């Protein structure tokens, strides 16, 4: 698992607390059989690699490995990894104002560009998240709608799939998440039509 992880120059990247050279170990711990290691790794990824919602180069580099983990039914805590992907993918990336960016610090422009790249990487796998709506693990089913909200450009495919899943879903929390996600995607679509 995680082929190519050590071929990435993590030390050349940074996260909120300095060098990203610790990221490969966090990713390996995230899929460990030890629940304490998984909890530590998830906290580390949120606390450093996705600190306060920031998207660093190392955050983007993590995405393929996070996707590989959620696609593997043998990995524990996939629901929590989906929740992280939902946050990284961004459920509401603001429009980019180039003039305003020139007036602001270059870091703000880079932050937006990184957020856009991360969003596109998550969006590209929306079909995986659609398949996870029917996963046997209820925590996966509960968090799949959240990450699908970050794929709003595919709402015309996502909403009908969610509605179909809703008619068959027996887990109460999963039903709530589906309803909230359908509403959020519909709301975003309405705002988009008003803006155009």
Structure, explained:
There is one protein chain. With 196 residues, the protein is mainly α. The protein folds into two domains: 1-124; 126-196, Leucine-rich Repeat Variant. 66% of the residues lie in helices and 2% in strands. It contains ten helices and two strands; from the N terminus they run ββαααααααααα. A two-stranded antiparallel ribbon has the order 1-2. A hairpin with a 2-residue loop joins strand 1 (14-15) and strand 2. Helix 3 (57-71) runs antiparallel to helix 4 and helix 8 (138-149) runs parallel beside helix 10 (172-195). The longest helix is centred in the C-terminal third of the chain and has 24 residues, at 172-195. It is globular, with a radius of gyration of 17 Å. The N and C termini lie far apart (44 Å).
Q: Percent of residues in beta strands?
A: under 5%
**Mean pLDDT across all amino acids:** 88
* Low-confidence residue ranges: 94-101, 192-196
Shape: globular
Describe this structure in a few short sentences.
With 196 residues, the chain is mostly helical. It has helices at residues 23-30, 35-49, 57-71, 78-89, 98-103, 106-123, 126-131, 138-149, 155-168, 172-195; strands at 14-15, 18-19. The longest helix is centred in the last third of the chain and has 24 residues, at 172-195.
